[in-house]
């Protein structure tokens, strides 16, 4: 991509940086996850894409939570929520609210955690219900581990 740029490389780069961050997080390799998350965020902030910006802030928040840096995680979640404010960005919204619920749970804010968990679940169900009942895509979405875990979290 660096040697032969083409139109929309910036968009593909966002997806790649998110995927690499998720990979390093899944492996528990925080020394690799954090710089990837920072690159992901830097790329998204150079665009007007609120969905991707919110996803990048949320991803950075999860890295910070794994590093036990709740102050930075709180800042990232607050920024993600601010980016989404006034916009319908469901592909980011459920993730941001899921992570906000997790953060509030770590901080002992059970009421706020429940509120964000409810918003995450409602957004997931709205997305799923926007797909036809017999569509395989709906089934695939609802069976994704992160979606399943969010829907199955005990209150």
Task: Compile the SSE list and pairings.
Elements: H1 9-27, H2 30-45, H3 50-66, H4 70-84, H5 90-107, H6 110-129, H7 136-143, H8 145-152
Helix pairs in contact: 1-2, 1-3, 2-3, 3-4, 3-5, 4-5, 5-6
In short:
The chain is an all-alpha fold and 155 residues long.
What does this structure look like?
By secondary structure, this protein is mostly helical. The chain has one domain: Alpha Horseshoe (Serine Threonine Protein Phosphatase 5, Tetratricopeptide repeat), CATH 1.25.40.10. Helices cover 78% and strands 0% of the residues. The protein has helices at 9-27, 30-45, 50-66, 70-84, 90-107, 110-129, 136-143, 145-152. Helix 1 (9-27) packs parallel to helix 3 (50-66), helix 3 runs antiparallel to helix 4 (70-84) and helix 3 packs parallel to helix 5 (90-107). The termini are far apart.
């Amino acid at each position: 991509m660096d040697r032969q740029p083409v139109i929309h490389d910036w968009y593909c780069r966002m997806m790649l940086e998110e995927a690499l961050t998720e990979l390093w997080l899944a492996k528990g390799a925080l020394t690799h996850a954090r710089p990837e998350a920072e690159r992901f965020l830097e790329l998204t902030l150079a665009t007007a894409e609120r969905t991707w910006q919110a996803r990048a802030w949320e991803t950075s928040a999860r890295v910070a939570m794994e590093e036990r840096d709740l102050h930075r995680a709180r800042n990232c979640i607050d920024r993600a929520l601010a980016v989404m404010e006034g916009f319908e960005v469901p592909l980011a919204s459920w993730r941001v609210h899921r992570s906000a619920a997790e953060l509030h749970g770590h901080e002992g804010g059970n009421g706020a955690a429940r509120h964000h968990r409810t918003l995450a679940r409602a957004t997931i169900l709205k997305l799923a219900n926007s797909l036809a009942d017999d569509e395989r895509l709906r089934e695939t979405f609802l069976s994704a581990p992160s979606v399943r875990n969010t829907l199955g979290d005990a209150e």
